[in-house]
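Q: Could you write out the predicted structure for this multi-component system? I'm mainly interested in how the pieces pack against one another.
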Amino acid sequence: MINLELPKKLRASANQAHQVAAQIFRPISRKYDLAEHEYPVELDTMAAMVEGLADSGTQKIGGAAGGRNDEAGDVEFVSNANGGNMSALLNALETSWGDVGLMLTIPYQGLGNAAIAAVATDEQLARFGKVWASMAITEPSFGSDSAAVTTTAVLDGDEWVLNGEKIFVTAGERSTHIVVWATVDKSLGRAAIKSFVVPRDAPGLSVARLEHKLGIKASDTAVLLLQDCRIPADNILGSPEVNVEKGFAGVMQTFDNTRPLVAAMAIGVTRAALEELRAILTDAGVEISYDTPAMNQHAAAAEFLRMEADYESAYLLALRAAWMADNKKPNSLEASMSKAKAGRTGTDVTLKAVELAGSLGYSQRLLLEKWGRDSKILDIFEGTQQIQQLIVARRVLGKTSAELK
Ligand SMILES: Cc1cc2nc3c(=O)[nH]c(=O)nc-3n(C[C@H](O)[C@H](O)[C@H](O)COP(=O)(O)OP(=O)(O)OC[C@H]3O[C@@H](n4cnc5c(N)ncnc54)[C@H](O)[C@@H]3O)c2cc1C
């Protein structure tokens, strides 16, 4: 039988994240939307809390810290584990309901943390388990085509020497570490792309500038330069061997953990917009009925029901992808499906909510217009809508990336 109830332990941690979102994020949401590049000092209190919780072994507040696939947490059923991925997903959803820009700048919860959690050795987890790691893949010459990495890593004695430029790095200025994708041998193609943990104070690493953006303004987005940047040899994640047979699988595996998290962010913003819209429609005397066919209701109520159904399906797809990761089931297809659905639903619902709320929706008196701007990025980073659809199509049709591009 399918049981759609969340386990008790996960409910408690999601509830805690919701309280943080409601009491810390929402009150400062507009302030940091208007003050781009200003550090949200209120998050320092949270950082202390997050660290305290991590020390006590309790689940972290935010979400992007992700979880190892073998980290079985609360086990409600005999053989089904709900572990780090599921918990991280729910926390990301709740905090994004509060403010997704602030969520992306929660200390110690970067997308790089999820990458580390996915592929680090036990020794590396001990060293990097409590850092704040951003993720640097994109370069001036590519975005979607992540096999086109040109940043190089050359082993020199007991150090890697990295050279290249990384752009659009979320939390690239504030994080303590950056997970950098670089090639150890360009002639060997995509199999030679590895990820490296670069500490903020590594010699040769610098922030060139910060971007001004449409939304998620509370989150810093940096251009990073690596100029003969030196890091210890054992900061490479996974094996330094280049396995041409295995190809790109090593680094790509991190997306299976991070895509459901970005889906969760979109679902959180979607829920915020739906709640606000429901209140506005109710105030305007529009009844949303679950007993009457949509076509017999007010047009706005019918739209609401359609959007709520999209929200529910995005939520369930994301839960499935995280559950599969926690239960060591390959989830690339489901991770992409969840991100495609949630990314599109987020932009659709938030902008429709602005439309249905009329001039109030477009004004800064509410956060609806902000959510409309914030949600767009969730359909772009960690793979655009089109890229997720491409991956789904390849998996469903059994085609390789060379056969379907
Ligand atoms: C605010 C922000 C934060 C970001 N944070 C990070 C980060 O932390 N780390 C990081 O590494 N990167 C980050 N990025 C970069 C982001 O991942 C890329 O922007 C994204 O992957 C798309 O790449 P691109 O912008 O080069 O677009 P392109 O790849 O040039 O794509 C342009 C358009 O073409 C479409 N397209 C491309 N290829 C195909 C295809 N084969 N079939 C059909 N359509 C296709 C795309 O969907 C898109 O609509 C961030 C970007 C932004 C804006």
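A: Regarding packing and overall arrangement: Residues 111, 134-138, 143-144, 168-170, 213, 221, 377, 380-381, 384, 386-387, 390, 405 surround flavin-adenine dinucleotide (CB under 6 Å).
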